[in-house]
Amino acid sequence: MTTIRRIGVLTGGGDCPGLNAVIRAVTKTAMHQYKLEVLGIEDGYLGLIQNRMRLLQWNDVSNILTLGGTILGTSNQANPQCFAIERSGKTEWVDVTDRVVDHVRANELDAVVCIGGDGTMTGAANLIKNGINCIGVPKTIDNDLEGCERTFGFDTAVHTAVECFDKIHTTAMSHHRVMVVEVMGRNAGWLALHSGVASGADVILIPEIPYDLDVIAAVLYERSKKGKRFSILCVSEGAKPKGGDVVVQRRVETSPDPIRLGGIANKLVADIEERTKLDARATVLGHIQRGGSPTPADRVLATQFGYHALEILMKGAHGQLVVQQAGRLAEVPIESVAGKQRKVPPDDPLVSTARAVGTCFGD
Ligand code: F6P
Q1: Which residues pair with 41 in a beta bridge?
Q2: Domain-ending residue, one of 272, 290, 308
Q3: DSSP E strands: which ranges in 99-247?
Q4: Pocket-forming residues, ligand 1, beta carbon under 6 Å
Q5: Are residues 44 and 75 in contact, defined by beta-carbon separation less than 8 angstroms?
Q6: What whole-number distance in Å separates Cα of residue 191 and Cα of residue 234?
Q7: What is the pTM assigned to this prediction?
Q8: pLDDT tens across 24-75, in order?
Q9: Is the CB of residue 318 less than 8 Å from the CB of residue 127?
Q10: 342 inside domain
Q11: Do 261 and 316 reside in the same domain of the chain?
């Protein structure tokens, strides 16, 4: 078994609340419990490609538990296997894994703790194949990492969204409007499902259950017949009509996952107004869901994840992702989750609960 003396830590992909709490837990456990040195790698895999890392001191990770974002910086456009470089004014895609391996060896890192989502785990799986020990920590507001029932950042994003829904509610009531609120989540509906249920949305649209506009229009009519002169729709950015497709906002060609979703709320408002003649408005919550201080639940989860990553590493783990399963900390091989997304099963208990209280899923 390799003796662990020095480790690296990086945060990859889109940021989310709780990243600093994990960095703190990893670094403090490493220093306090195991007397290790920790190098903070800047901007995710970009820092490994460009050899940008610094020795973290205790003070660097003090007072960051409650801080949103990441003190290390992040990037969702740096995949060592397919890295964009400019040559004679043209973009070329090259595999720079060897360069990353050289930098890991030159800095004498015995392991790298990779805090990130599926893109970061795909990158970690490649490094593991090339002889680098990586331990994964599951991050994302989307809560869509395979094999893990709860990622940190999700709870905070739901809280943020629900605060916004509560505000939308009062203006919707005053103006007797249909308010369509778009939340993030990529191709998984967890964020929409939880924030929609928590805010009492009348209609929740998620990618896993394609919607029918006629069904939505009927619900809106039914509500107004009963004297409810406003309605709230919670729409996942990845929602799509039956037989139709998602709304793509942009393509980020240098990103491992180039599609950026967004715009479904505006499309729905146009469709609903045309179909029902009701007054409708769209609100896109966007990156506000990724910002701010983590909730207490996320601070606790992030701290547990960071601690557990060090515990399993010191017990000899190689290429494992820390996960939560049935409420307990566990680990699964990173290669078994790389490139996969955990979707909402259409018969998820929370979907059934929402249906039972009269929420429409547009189907
Ligand atoms: O994966 C997190 C997430 O916020 C998704 O919910 C969203 O689709 C995407 O990242 C947005 O990415 P970007 O920050 O590149 O616009």
Answers
A1: 53
A2: 290
A3: 111-116, 134-138, 178-183, 203-205, 231-236
A4: 14, 76, 117, 140-142, 184-186, 237, 260-261, 290
A5: yes
A6: 10
A7: 0.97
A8: 999 999 999 999 999 999 999 999 999 999 999 999 999 999 999 999 999 9
A9: no
A10: no
A11: no
Q: Give CA torsion, residues 263, 267, 268, 271, to 10 deg.
A: 180
Please tell me the total number of residues recorded for the chain in this structure.
363
In this predicted model, what pLDDT tens digit does every residue of 75-85 receive, in sequence order?
988 999 999 88
Are 51 and 89 in the same domain?
yes
Residues with a catalytic annotation lie at 142
Counting ligand 1 atoms within 8 A of each CB, the residue from 79, 186, 255 with the most, and so the one to mutate, is 186
116 and 161 in one domain?
Answer: no
Cβ within 8 Å of residue 73, ≥6 positions away:
11, 42, 43, 44, 47
For residues 15 and 81, membership in a common domain is answered with yes
Closest-lying ligand 1 atom to the alpha carbon of residue 252: 15
Between the CA of 207 and the centroid of ligand 1 the distance, in Å, is: 15
User: Is 103 in the same domain as 140?
Assistant: yes
- Domain holding 276, by residue range, is 157-290
What's phi and psi for 7, nearest 5 deg? -125, 160
| Per-residue pLDDT tens digits for 273-299 | 999 999 999 999 999 999 999 999 999
Task: State the distance from the centre of ligand 1 to the C-alpha of 59, rounded, in angstroms.
Answer: 31
Report the chain's mean pLDDT, rounded to a whole number. Answer: 96
Domains identified in the chain, total number: 2
Structural domain contains residue 354: no
CATH code of the domain containing 247: 3.40.50.460
Same domain, 135 and 10: yes
pLDDT at 264: 98
CA pair distance 185, 143, nearest whole angstrom: 8
148 CA from centroid of ligand 1 (Å): 19
* Percentage of the chain exceeding pLDDT 90: 93
Q: Do 286 and 298 belong together in one domain?
A: no
In this structure, the answer to whether residues 26 and 51 fall within a common structural domain is yes
pLDDT at 23 over 70: yes
The answer to whether residue 143 is domain-embedded is yes
Residue 355 lies in a domain: no
